[in-house]
Amino acid sequence: MQISNNAVVQFHYTLSDTSGELESSNGSTPLLYMHGQQQMLPKLEAALEGKAAGDTVELTLAPEDAYGEVKQNAIQSVQVKYLHGAKKWKPGMKAWIQTDEGQRQVTVVKVGMFKADIDVNHPLAGKTLTFKVDILNVRPATSEEIAHGHAHGEGGHQH
Q1: Are the C-beta atoms of residues 1 and 136 closer than 8 Å to each other?
Q2: Each residue of 3-31: pLDDT tens digit?
Q3: Closest CA to 48 of 120, 157, 150, 135
Q4: Alpha-carbon torsion 70, 25, 51, 54, what sign?
Q5: Under CATH, what is the fold of the domain 75-119?
């Protein structure tokens, strides 16, 4: 089966920038996504269209096609209690905060007793990124997955 709208794709990936490998899913549970549901960077999803199990896709994206350029005025002050991911915070650490659009990863810039300055740029903003995606399996989405708008099962969303 080829990747098309409402296909559930199981894959491993490696993500690199110009300095080398940043992260990889190899050695862990493969990931799942449902194609056509805007769950991935648009140009990466477009590159996967029409591919099948056993294919490998390698794609380099400029910052504007990945996580955007770094915005210089993206520092905000928040109460430390709203930072999730650690008990004690230091500058440079990654944290999660809840926003109106869901959880968002931020970088801690400065920490006080009750407040922290955070950089709301995506941690990969401003970087040229290379994705290597190894497609392991492609299957039709179930009617339940289509109704929910995402893949179910190990590596996907669990209910």
Answers
A1: no
A2: 999 999 999 999 999 999 889 999 999 99
A3: 135
A4: positive
A5: Thrombin, subunit H (2.40.10)
How do residues 62-112 score in pLDDT, each as one tens digit? 999 999 999 988 999 999 999 999 989 999 999 999 888 788 899 999 999
Reported pTM = 0.79
User: CA–CA separation, 150 vs 64, rounded Å?
Assistant: 26
Termini Cα distance of the chain: 26
- Cα separation values, 34 from 44, 117, 139, 155, Å: 13, 36, 10, 12
Spatial separation of the C-alpha atoms in residues 67 and 89, rounded to whole Å: 25
What's the rounded Cα separation, in Å, for the pair 111 and 85? 15
Strand, helix or coil for residue 66: coil
Cβ neighbors of 31 (< 8 A, separation 6 or more) are 10, 11, 12, 13, 25, 155, 156
Chain position carrying tokens 């999803």: 45
- Fold held by 7-67+125-148: Chitinase A; domain 3 (3.10.50)
CB contact at 8 A, 116 and 83: yes
